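Instructor's aside before we start: the two examples that follow are unrelated to each other. I chose them only because their records fit on one page, so don't look for a connection. First example below.
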Amino acid sequence: MNANGPWIEHLPGNGLWSNAILVTKGMAPYGAVALGEIDQVCENLRARQGEPQAWWEEWSAMGRRLHARADELEAAGHHMSAGNYYLRAGMYYFTAERFIYPGPDKREMGRIAIDCQIKGILRRYPNCERVEVPYEDKSLPALFMKSPHAGAKAPTIVVFNGMDNCKEMSVLFAGLEFATRGWHTLAIDGPGQGESLRLRELYARHDFEVAGSAAYDYVAQRPQVDAARTFVMGYSFGGYYAARCAAYEKRYRGGIAMSALHWDLHGWQRDIKRRQDADPKGTPQSAFHFRWIMGCIDDGEAALEKARQFSLAQAAGQITCPFLIVHAAEDTVVPVANAPRLFDAIASKDKHLKILTAADGGHYHAQADNRQVGIDYIGDWVETRL
């Protein structure tokens, strides 16, 4: 039985906007958005669904309003209150940027969003710091959140995002909970993610263990990290990335896929393209986003060809560390059938699959409807393996 209601599908018949609204609403428990502000934007959008530009106009208008207030509070010396406004402004700017076609306008909106989010996080959470992770001849931007409850050396979770998320979201919905449990978190924008994509033009790569190794090397050299108890986690598209890291970077203590991806990215994206051609509003993904992260914005076929390399068919058999898959029973983004298929192929004797249902409290893709349910399950699983 489908348990989705109007809270999930905010604009009935418009899966593209409704999914993006849900992701934004899902950040409310962490103070990164306010439901009343979201409702104001959505009521304006409800009457403008035939205007593609309405999306970024309405969300960025809310962002500018809060941004101005944040600057006023900052100038008056009210840094904590300013942080709240910066954080919400940044999240709305990031939501606005989602459906802007790649180019100068998207880059600038991304820059403003990241700047506001970082200002908000650093003011609200002084135990968090912005860091750079050495990566090949470049570096990857990240946030390191230290737990105030940790011992001299503590477990650490490296968190990679999904296809259209960012480290600023990860450090809030995952890092805050992990900090409460006494663990540090490295929330990182890998190639094709967040700031690395938007401001550094680093595109997705199938051999993501290169980024995973860079992240491990970074945390392992930090004096407060217990390198032998470092886990790698990814959510949504990051489920693929975490699995690749667990398969080929053997120093991780374990891995977590908060959504099982990808057995066959090429086939999955070709099917999404078919559905988009039939109904542009019928899928949760824009027509250009996949091409953009692949570095093939002007060539859909080249993006699909590159996607052939993104498969766990060979990698799953190389996963020998403890591994957890958490998937949603009514995932309309990634078929739930992916989860048992990946689970069966993983070689580790210590593997676990959890399908979360409406009865559990969160049943949508990557628990966007209730992140806490997924993170609590992940936290409990990690605790038993420390």
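Example two begins here.
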Amino acid sequence: MISADTKDALARELPDERHCRDSLLAGLCVYGSIDGHFVTHRNAVARLFWSLLEERKVHAIETRAPTRLQRLPTFAVRLPQRLRAMPPKPVRKCDRLIEVRAAFLACGSLAAGARGYHLEFVVRDEGVAARLTWMLRSNGAAAKEMHRKGRAVLYLKDFDAIAELLTRIGAFAAVLRLEDVRALRETKNRIHRLVNTEAANLQRSAQAGAQQRRVIEFLQSAYGLSRLTPPLREVAELRLRHPDESLAELGRRCNPPIGKPSVSSRLGALTRLADNLRGKQGSAKAAR
């Protein structure tokens, strides 16, 4: 949808200078011609091409019904003979930018899906691909090339490179939409990271709490909590009564309240005491 909207918006904007309009028409012919016709799936792009022609009265827009493979309708305009040859590369920088705009209108697509951002141009042969590669590089965009179903495909995947190129060719609304998509995606990723971190912290806290309970239950049966010092007994009893609470929450329940490091220190002392008792029990069994 973002690709179609971007093309429709660009198709409504005609360059002010005559040489830029000529470059736009020539570029549409270079990148959108098939069998002597300019062909597109966007009605707005077809109307743009038709409006740039001098021979509008004898070159009407032809609407072709969708096929089984191409479910969208196709719009075609027969090329005048003078526009069928490959034009020379534009000299002016603005004309080169206009040709890149024409390439996007004729054979480009833009997507911002789950796999990232993707701007591509599908051209009919290697000669046209080489020309478009030169045009893109002259405007600061280094596109990569691959082949799909026998056709050359030039593409960009870096967000900043895509946004800069779209800005240069005047697709400002598309850049704003991409920025919205990126901001939303980054917010979702940040939330996911926070949720995952919190879940991991809760899991670690639960595992630590369970281990602390086992230690205290061992001390209760093998030593007796009443024999503990008041600070250690207080923390031990609180852990048994509140197995799911964090160390900070246990510390707030103490009288007087203490901090998380103090609670951790007292639980550590209980663990060391339990280890000593287990060691003594093991030695006694070995002596027998």
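The first helix runs from residue 2 to 11.
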